[in-house]
């Protein structure tokens, strides 16, 4: 789809409304609306329709009162486009003619005009967007290839977040722009799944990109596993069920995760797992569609990736098998310090399991770690195959998704700022606030590599 916010050939006027289809399927269609260069507002179609019926129906011409309806034999693409145009036209009319209405200003997050000024500020208000200067940087809590993760506190609300700060220069040098933008897209489409980290804001300046995320301070699964050596089968089942739910949800959205490992699984203060870091996700993977990019973490790579063959969503189920194996036995299934030797084992060596685990657990791991993806558990019905496996018979899936089950392990967390579960390797890294929140680096030029990166979760802004 064409970029609806910016164009090389023209400038976007301050009050111009643009609308973009973010996601469309049989269950839900999501549209993003933007006024000029302001923040992106993202809502499901029904929210726009409800706003129209409840608040502004009497403010618009009669031609806008007829909602787009799907006609017989009409394609989804055409139907979604009609909805998009309807939203864009209605919003444009309201912005052009009805900005004195409190309901309109509230819906679009428009600041009220001064009595002495006939112009309306349609840009982002201080309350509805964020910059790095809105936060106190407290502690380093993570480190990656392109930047670091910090525990931060919002200066006004005092709420604690995790802020991921990435260097644009490093991203460009490594040709990772597409992966970063894919991560942003996945984050804004998570719709607050209980086992996926949620994005509150994303913004940028001339040098850096910023993700403001849920702060989860129960520690990495990796750290707990290192300390305890291995987990019980029951505890491993609880974590594996959460991971499977998260992967199944991503697959339902046509996304392959591709980087499942204990380092990307964080515990919250209630002992529930949350999947983080979506930098290697692959979007638009409908049905049995395949891709062939070589990526992931060596210990958890599926055979087809190592062999540079086309692969599909089943690579994530291989990774689940590897992580489950590691939780129970303490190391990944084909581990070797020598990567070439490990790759050879993954491709050629038969899986060996100790007899200390139950038959259902043995069968699940064996099914997930099938070297032939066409025989791998999850190949036929994806998440449903995993959910229906006898190993998960004790799991009440509804209660799990509603977070109503008591976790088998509750990390010791005193409060939101507690960093006792964070690796000292990260905590000891000194913070340079001047470089993280520079005063003179606001984006005043168009950065085409990272267009539309900015995001505000309007459903829970700064709460």
> Could you tell me how far the N terminus lies from the C terminus, measured between alpha carbons in angstroms?
33 Å
Helix content: 25-40%
Largest sheet: 6 strands, antiparallel
Could you say what the CATH architecture of the largest domain is?
A: Orthogonal Bundle
Give me the side-by-side strand order of the main sheet. 4-5-6-8-7-11
Rg, please? 24 Å
CATH topology annotation of the largest domain: Transferase(Phosphotransferase), domain 1
Q: Based on DSSP secondary structure assignment, what is the total number of beta strands?
A: 11
Topology order in helix (H) and strand (E) letters: EEEHHHEEEHHEEHHEEHHHHHHHHE
Please give a quick description of this structure.
With about 475 residues, this protein is α+β, with helices and mostly antiparallel strands. About 30% of the residues lie in helices and about 15% in strands.
Architecture overview:
- The protein has 463 residues and is of the alpha+beta class.
- The chain folds into 3 domains: 17-126, PX Domain, CATH 3.30.1520; 132-216 and 416-450, Phosphorylase Kinase, domain 1, CATH 3.30.200; 221-401, Transferase(Phosphotransferase) domain 1 (Transferase(Phosphotransferase), domain 1, Orthogonal Bundle).
- It contains 15 helices and 11 strands.
- The protein has helices at residues 45-56, 76-97, 102-108, 168-173, 177-188, 221-228, 233-252, 303-306, 314-329, 339-348, 359-368, 383-387, 397-401, 424-427, 433-436, and strands at residues 17-24, 29-35, 41-44, 135-143, 147-154, 160-167, 199-204, 208-213, 265-267, 273-275, 455-456.
- A 6-stranded antiparallel β-sheet has the order 4-5-6-8-7-11.
- Helix 7 packs antiparallel against helix 9 and helix 9 (314-329) crosses helix 11.
